[in-house]
Design goal:
Blueprint (H helix, E strand, L loop, with lengths): L5 E2 L3 E7 L5 H14 L4 E4 L11 E6 L2 E6 L3 H12 L8 E4 L39 H7 L1 H11 L15 H10 L4 E6 L9 H8 L1 H14 L2 E9 L3 H17 L4 E5 L8 H8 L24 E4 L1 H12 L13 E8 L5 E6 L4 H4 L10 E4 L5 E3 L8 H6 L7 E5 L5 H15 L5 H18 L5 H14 L3 H6 L1 H9 L1 H8 L7 H7 L1
Parallel strand pairs: 2-3, 7-8, 7-10, 8-9, 11-15
Antiparallel strand pairs: 1-2, 2-4, 4-5, 5-6, 11-12, 13-14, 13-15
Helix pairs in contact: 1-2, 3-4, 3-7, 6-8, 7-8, 7-10, 13-14, 13-17, 14-15, 15-17
Protein name: NADH-quinone oxidoreductase subunit F
Family: Belongs to the complex I 51 kDa subunit family.
Keywords: 4Fe-4S, Iron, Iron-sulfur, Metal-binding
Length: 511
């Protein structure tokens, strides 16, 4: 399938790119473009990942696309009229490209120029439900064993906390599933209620058809009888994935089922996702072993992957030259930069790239600290770590694909205290180390404000919670506190003396 960037007769194509964070504004821009268009065709696409630019108006005439970031409605009308007249209004950027380009052309500077767009290549450029020109599902049907062997050799790791093979080789999980008794099932875990992390959401909203295509390919490779896409209730990503799945069924006679789960942080944990899919009102983490690959959904062998993992599988099979089997973490990783920034941005980096490279996509003032890895990421003063999973794990940072930046006025103790409280309130309650340990952790942090800083007890408690909890929620819940103590020991001591070096706690007390 070829994407036409110019309609017959030379009429320009106008695209409006935007995600759920800018949905209302994007709808207004699209309506203004349609009202202004006489010959141009207006298409609504998905997010580019660069929220700071959205809604983004893209006006393509032949082999050239003009970019207009967050345009006023008057500017939309002027840009469309100018393009139809064979002219170009004053654009923020202009990119020349092939006339039949199927992926988003990117300017030489700005947030879209950061990193390499492979998994994100179609996001912002195509109808999110439009099947990709190259179908990986069709490709693997010709030589499934060759594809399996290629993935075994490559050693591709799972991406994201919702993946049952997170930071572990996925091909090993596939083999376990294929060798287990029972009819296999593939679960696409697209339920992530952590608003910090926009990686899977960007893929699901911006290129849902490729997610579905990759899911059908993996289902074939693991001999899965069923494919279930597990999403949040009433989200834009769910709408797009549902439409893409329906389109796939109409065109191929098969396709994924769509199931929704609660908008709860714990609902994205792989085994709690299975509990939700089975209709259980109380979500609790399952003991492992056995893992989902041998005993998953309704006892069936189950592979659980995130959209990010599926995007890597798709690229690895269709474009293997971009992957190095000698790399400890082959491929690319999606990273959302958020925190004390005007607008979050999701970029795609080679796993050998530095985390600092991701921050080039945002306007951030002086940064005191960063939390790398989402809700329960690790606190660090430095961003010169590689984005690869082994490098981040070695630095006791998270691999979930989030870098939060915090300015000088942010308090390390208050920040990690909020997350410890979240862990104590939102855990599933199944295991004692997480259920009781996070309560003790929260209380010990509160005691610091009263002048009692028991650093030895805090360190022992974070170690115990991390080493003995049942699931990744508990194993990572104390990491934020432990890494903050290592990076900001003097701030913890200052609070015990009645001082907040950043002044944030004084402001909170007044409020």
């Amino acid at each position: 399938m070829t994407v036409s960037n110019e309609e017959p007769g030379g009429s320009p194509v106008v695209r409006v790119a935007g995600g759920s964070a800018r949905r209302t504004e994007a709808n207004a821009v699209a309506d203004a473009a349609r009202e202004a268009a006489k010959a141009a065709v207006v298409r609504e696409t998905g997010p580019t990942g660069a929220t700071s630019l959205e809604p983004l108006l893209l006006v393509t005439t032949g082999a050239e696309t003009a970019f207009y970031a967050k345009p006023s409605l008057d500017r939309v009308a002027d840009a469309v009229a100018a393009a139809e007249a064979g002219d170009r209004d004053d654009a923020d950027a202009v990119v020349e490209h092939d006339e039949e380009r199927e992926t988003l052309p990117t300017p030489d500077d700005g947030p879209l120029s950061v990193g390499r767009r492979r998994a994100l290549a179609r996001c912002g450029w195509v109808d999110p439900t439009e099947p990709p020109a190259e179908s990986v599902a069709e490709a693997v049907r010709d030589d499934p064993e060759g594809a399996r062997e290629a993935m075994r050799t490559l050693g591709l790791l799972g991406r994201g906390r919702g993946d049952a093979r997170a930071d572990r080789p996925i091909a090993e999980g596939w083999e376990e599933c294929r060798e287990a008794d029972g009819d296999a099932v593939l679960v696409v875990n697209a339920n992530d209620a952590d608003d910090r992390n926009r990686t899977d959401r960007t893929l699901s909203e911006g290129d849902a058809a490729s997610v579905v295509d990759a899911a059908m390919a993996v289902a074939h490779l693991v001999d899965a009888e069923d494919v279930v896409v597990y999403c949040e209730e009433e989200s834009r990503a769910t709408e797009r994935l549902s439409s893409a799945a329906s389109r796939h069924r109409r065109e191929h006679g098969d396709g994924p089922q769509i199931a929704v789960g609660p908008e709860m942080y714990i609902a994205g944990e792989p085994t709690m996702a299975l509990e939700s899919l089975e209709g259980n009102d109380r979500l609790e983490a399952r003991l492992r072993p056995p893992g989902p690959e041998t005993h998953g959904l309704y006892g069936r062998p189950t592979v659980i992957h995130t959209p990010r993992t599926l995007a890597q599988v798709r690229e690895a099979i269709l474009r293997p030259d971009g992957f190095d089997a000698d790399d400890a973490d082959p491929g690319t990783r999606l990273v959302t930069v958020t925190g004390d920034v005007d607008d979050p941005v999701t970029v795609e980096l080679a796993t050998g790239a530095s985390l600092r490279r991701a921050t080039d996509a945002v306007d951030a003032e002086t940064t005191k600290m960063a939390i790398v890895g989402g809700q329960f990421g690790g606190v660090t003063r430095r961003l010169d770590h590689s984005v690869s999973a082994p490098a981040l794990a070695g630095a006791n940072l998270g691999t979930e694909g989030v870098v939060e930046l915090f300015g000088e006025d942010r308090c390390a103790l208050a920040t990690v205290g909020d997350r410890a409280r979240f862990a104590s309130e939102e855990n599933c309650g199944r295991c004692v180390p997480c259920r009781e340990g996070t309560k003790q952790l929260t209380n010990l942090l509160r005691d610091i404000y009263a002048g009692d800083y028991d650093d030895d007890m805090l360190r022992e408690l974070t170690r115990t919670i991390g080493n003995t909890s049942t699931c990744d929620f508990g194993r990572s819940a104390a990491r934020t506190v432990g890494t903050a103590m290592a990076a900001f020991e003097t701030e913890f001591e200052a609070h015990a003396e009645g001082r907040c070096p950043s002044g944030e706690c004084d402001t909170r007390a007044v409020q």
